[in-house]
TrEMBL record:
Residues 28-73 form the HTH cro/C1-type domain. It comes from Acinetobacter terrae. This is HigA family addiction module antidote protein. InterPro entries: Cro/C1-type_HTH, Lambda_DNA-bd_dom_sf, Toxin_antidote_HigA. It holds the Pfam family HTH_3. CDD domains: HTH_XRE (cd00093).
Length: 100
């Protein structure tokens, strides 16, 4: 049984990154970023608001545009996705081997 809390969605990191740029006087809008990484504004907005996952492709695009670590985005997204799935009803699976 996994003991996790509700980990952050990778979109939160992107949102915080954009907020940080704004505070530094280098504001980038969601529309500008979406155009730059060649995705729809709707998709990027869904990612930032935790409604869509960050894929490896999007993580690499964000890295290219903003310098955010694609590896970090994927690790954060993976933890979040595992937690979300662990909260769902799943069939009982009997293990082949009993771990000690």
């Amino acid at each position: 049984m996994m003991t996790m809390y509700n980990p952050a969605h990778a979109g939160e990191l992107v949102s915080e990154w954009l907020d940080g740029l704004k505070e530094e006087g280098q504001a980038i809008t969601v529309t500008e970023l979406a155009d730059r990484i060649k995705v729809t504004r709707t998709l990027l907005s869904r990612i930032i608001h935790g409604k869509a996952p960050v894929s490896a492709d999007i993580a690499l695009r964000l890295h290219d545009a903003l310098g955010i670590s694609a590896d970090l985005l994927m690790r954060v997204q993976s933890k979040h996705s595992l937690w979300v799935e662990s909260q769902k009803q799943r069939p009982e699976i009997k293990p082949f081997f009993i771990s000690c």
